[in-house]
Amino acid sequence: MSSPGAMAASVDDDVEMHDPERDEEVDGDAIQPHGATDDSSEEEEDDPEEERRIKAGFIVDEEEEEEEEEERRPRKKRRKHKKQSEDSEELDEDDLDLITESTGRKRHPRLQRLRRYSNSPPAASSSKRAVIDSSEDDLDEAANAEDIHNIWDDEERRDGEGDPEDEDLDDFIDWEDEEEGGVGQDDISREERRKQKQRRDDERRKIRSLHPNTLGIDANAWQEMHDVFGNGHDYDIHLNVDDAQFEEEESMMIPKDDMRLHHVFEPSVIKAKMLTDDDDIIRLADIPERMQLATASFSQNWTLISTSDLTEADLNGAALWVTQRISDKKNKSFFSPDGELQYLKGYLVLAVTVVLRHMFLEHLEVPHIWTHKRDQVIHYDFQNRSKQELLNLPELWKIYSLGQKYRALVDRRNALQAIYTRLQITDKYFEEEILPQTDGVEVVADASEWLSMMHKDDKADTGFHFHDDEEMDAPKKHKTPSRISVYEVTKKTIVARLAQGFGIKPQEVVTNFMAMSHVHFIDNLELTPMPYAEQFVDSDPAKAVPAEELLRQARMIFATELGKDPILRNYVRQHFKMDAVITVLPTEKGKIKIDEHSYRYILTHSAELQILMNKPVNEMLTSSQFLRILDAENQHLISVSVLLPPDSQSVLERRLSDAFTSDSFDESAKAWNEERSLIVQEVLVQHLLPMGSKWVREYLRDEVEDFVANSCASALRRRVDVAPYRTPEMAFGETASVMAMSWGKGDPQRDDINIVYLDEGGRLREQTKIDNLYDQAMRDEFFDLIKRRRPDVIVVGGFTIATAKLSARLKELLRAGPNPDPNNLGAPPDPDFQIPVIYVRDEVARIFQHSPRAVEEFGPIPEVAKYCIGMARFVQNPLNEYAALGADISAISFDKDDQHLVPHEKLLIAFERVLVDITNKVGVDINRATTDNHYKHLLPFVCGLGLRKAEALIQKIQSLGGNLADRNQFLKNDLLTHDVFLNAAGFLRIYQESTSRQSRRDDENVQDPLDSTRIHPADYELARKMATDALEMDEEDVQDGHPSQVVTELMKDPTKEKRLAELNLDDFAISLYEVNHEQKRHTLNVLRAELLHPFSEQRNPWTPLSAWDVLTMLSTESEDTLTVGLIVPVQVNRGLVTQAFMSDDGSQLKVASAVNGVILDVKLDLEADQFLVELSTRRTDMIEGDSNFRRIRPDPHWDAAQNEKDLDILARKKRAETAGGRRIIKHPNFHNFNTAQAEAYLEKQQRGDVVIRPSSKGNDHLAVTWKVDHKLYQHIDVTDSNPDPSGQALGGQLVVDAQHIYSDLDELIVNHVQAMVRRVEELMNHERFKAKSEDELHQFLKQQLAANPAKSMYGFTLNRKRPGHFTLCFLANKQAAVQSWPVRVTPEAYFLPELCDAFKVRHLHQQSIGNQGGRTPFGAGMRTPARPTGGMTPGRPGYTSVRQPAATPNPYGGATPASRFGNAPPQTAYGYQTPSHPAPGHLPAGMNPQRAAMIQDANGPGWGR
């Protein structure tokens, strides 16, 4: 065998170098490393043929290369495609470099070909050309083996580590760094390449020096390392990257000029920064931002409004549609015959029309209309000098919401009209009846469905196409799966003709229904329904369908078309809206989870989550009750039913029947009327009633969500519509400087007292911390801060009730001053330190301290200090703090019980409208908003603006220098578009500098005093006229000066109030109306008020928090949790303890112990910072419990009787849980099993085996379970007439029912259970018994009757729903329906011969009492012919009730024995009393008199809450 070195020399000496012009890749055969051959042999002789074959794979003659050129080129392409398909996930350069560094392997482009260079050393001059492979396979064989063949293996060459002396081989191999043209590198560039490679090799030699063999690591240990950390080949697929791929990536790079944001940033980042294309549309459009959005402007999930704008032609219809939906109160006052404002209904519609024009044609927002256009929503009686407000501010917002809905309705209506036009049909009923009544999106949806259903096959091609026409490029649509209903299939059959036999069309029935008269009469047929249907039976017996089935399908077609009629469905919806009732029943889970004292029960404010029977829908519109019900339903605690009361449903059914039935009295008309009655039933049950129920649920949900959202918004309005804090000495417009202090959680060992000071401009001037207020040094530091800063008010806040101690200590220090004189305690306090100490709402501050906004503004200061800053800012401007929250405002609980039930977006819209109202009520200083990053949060809520437009406005103003001189600059400098300016101008204040210079009319950028008022620029001339008249000046007197110079003079006039009061604004308003037909009476009042006091404070004055508010803020306790009379858990620490309230025997309470106490009184003194709850831990005071105080006023529709039954069932289950597992009775069949365990035990036993077990009804009951059949068990309730109190023995007779009484268990098993087993087996062995289900038995009887038409068929089967019963099915003839009766098995009754005769006699008797001539065997004259005349279970014909009437029905038959408790105790004002609790009139001796009086008061006519 030749050595590797010799073989290398022989191969290299014979290699023929390729010509440089040839650029073909040579693929060599894979050669195994030295010592690892394909056949795993250890030695192998030299094979000359193999050596020649190896040479042939790499040494190519020119002639052979030319012949194989065409073959190699496609193979090269295939290799590239294969490699690209494997590299499914490519890595970038950084990742590849990282992988290269971590693996220590070289990364080269793919080897291309061999070349001859003039400066290369001879091919055979190197003796160390073999690549050393350091893989784990080589370590097992020979660590330093040399394999000459690896130099030809592309993959191994790239993966291996070359020898440092192996440089000639690098010259020998040319990498694919040239362009496709095949031009080679020059010598200089090649030399630079070699130097770079040498440097990389030097770096990697350090890594190779850590070879496992040199470190003494054996192969097994190295293998274990590979198993854990990998072998470094995991990323090979990404290292083999072709240069062509890099070129392809470079070609795909986006030019710099075409680079956009979405090429660089993630879409979520772009959306968060409001830089999307939609944001640009909103920002540039001349429409108020909020009018372009369907959600709140600061919502994270905002969407654009996609509806079309209204036109002038739409306004009249919109006004009528909107006016009727504003509110029920509005309709009653203006549109009812006895309404007090009925004479103004025309003016109301006109006002709504004007408002809609302003909103949707002129794009004016609600605040602008309310402030500057309010005259148009007020009716003035100039003769009587009186006025009547037609619309208020909430109603304007409601009109805006309704207007948006009407826009959507118009779009859908236009789409419906377009669909009808494309159909190219003429349907008078649709055009004349349906289309004019599409006044809701539900009606439009119904009309679209009806149109598609009725004219689905009438769709026509709208154009002509020829074979040589050019096809239009249409977007390809994915084929959606088609759904074909039974109606569509049946409609295409002959049954559609049969459906015409009812003598009237469905739409004609609806016309009769709406007119309440027979506008369309019914054509009666001479044949009755069955003979008429037989005419449509297929003559082919194989395809024939029975006439009954054809008639049923015809009824289905007619009922479907009638039930889908839009007009009828809309009427039913309104019927449900007026009359529907809601019934709530608890589920099995709900009976356990919901009780009278549970949290959810309290949230309902009544007992509706237990049993609520037939509560009208109208009574649920003004409470959150329905949302709680839906929430409980989602948790599977209750089941909710929305239905019509029986009388209301009867009216609807009778009216529909009258519109559909014939007035004829012949037999044929009567028979067809019966069929029509069945159609009416099917229409109601299958279509109208489910639709109405579903719609009412959604309607009620939407209305109640709006109600709760508006309630939360009202709570927000009460908090933001408050002026900043002002001391009595402060003038209007001044802002208080605030010092805020907080002790955090109030732990003396951990928490410092943080202090911050904000000046009048809201700027943080000082922030410090002190340990306490008791050490002299700390007090000196505190007083030094007070002296230096002199705050107007001190705010105290914190997270625990310990904050009250800080407040009390502060007040004590401020009263005493820095140097109190102990000898003169009665000296008057130092006025410099008489600073008020107050509490404020800290909900906004708690959010602010953790917000990114706080970090951005104040950086590293402690979070408690940021909390103090939030409180101080709240004192200076509550509105600004709530506005700065943005979408986080929904985190504040304005209604702790119901707010979470409202969708987040709906809450944000309601909150935003409040902030918009109050912000525009106050106004915004535009120049301050440009420079103050905190104050600018108010700007987006200005009328016409939003987050995007406000941000753009600030940027434009800053580009102009950051300051505006007058409002004209908004338009002159293109800061705002026209419509946005009209909205915002009156609410953007520009403060005027005081100057005595007289301005001329042609002065540019001159300050206008009206720009500092709420007066809109459109009313400037009117304000100037008012000022001129007030100063008794003529127009000539102000002709040369600035137009508003007269306003300046009036504002400076000390008698301006008297002068303006002397103006007769009523006459002025009348003259304006006569000249310009403009109502300006309210506007004149606004002008006069603004000329007197520009931007005067219109918010409510600052209101301090109540004691309960402070207690809830510091401790989360409220009036609900601290109601007098409640028993609460408390921990004994220290405090004022009254001996009389501690215990009955005078024993002391241990410190740090947990006890229960009843609340006797709650004493709150906010001025003294004392919050006391007086408790009693005496047993005599708590023996009565607190159920009476926790009880809630029940709903008037609460079903107390059903609730008592549910409570009784729960009590039984609890008794079974406590006593069932401990009972022991000496009998071989007794087991402590429950129902499931007993059935599991009997599953493998024989039929008739018995288990006796405890009963859930108590120790006086036993349950006997016996096996009837496979997976069928009967449970018998047995009562012990004289039970043993311990439950361990049987004390008396065992009573099953009144006829079956036994002395012991053995007698019961033999004479009762085994006797019934014999009866069951006897019936099961009868030839008429079939071990089938009831449906299968019905089919069997029909097949038998078809084979024997002259006979009647009957059979038995086990009743799986009622164990211990059989079902007898009887089929009299082919025309009759299969009748079923339950057969009850008792120990001595229902023998088989009697039973077989009895049901036949019964059938004949029922036939004799029915109407003659009818085909159905039961009550042919009734509304449902197949239903028996009485005594039957409605759900299944032929079933009779086997229960005996009793107080509590026994599910196993027979009467239930009287209760062992005797008669029920009389019911008191608060329910039944348990024996262990005396009646309220018998209070325990020794009870605390205060507690006794409290209980007596609670037992009076009032309720706990």
What characteristics describe this protein?
1505 residues, disordered N terminus, 9% strand, 57 helices
Task: Describe this structure as you would to a colleague.
The protein is of the alpha+beta class and 1505 residues long. Helices cover 43% and strands 9% of the residues. The protein has 57 helices and 25 strands. The strands form 8 sheets. A 5-stranded mixed beta sheet has the order 10-9-8-11-12, sandwiched between helices. Strands 18-19-20-21-22 form a 5-stranded antiparallel beta sheet, with helices on both faces. Helix 15 (315-323) crosses helix 17 and helix 24 (506-515) crosses helix 26. The N terminus and C terminus are likely disordered.
| Residues in β-strands, percent | 5-15%
Total helical elements: 57
User: pLDDT under 50 segments (min length 5)?
Assistant: 1-45, 55-67, 73-90, 108-185, 460-472, 596-609, 1391-1395, 1409-1482, 1500-1505
Q: Could you give the order of strands across the largest sheet?
A: 10-9-8-11-12
Q: Could you tell me the radius of gyration in angstroms? A: 47 Å
Helix content range of the residues, please? 40-55%
Mean pLDDT across all amino acids: 76
**Major sheet, described briefly?**
5 strands, mixed
Derived from helix and strand composition plus strand pairing, the structural class reads: alpha+beta
Number of strands: 25
End-to-end Cα distance, whole Å, is 106 Å
Shape: globular
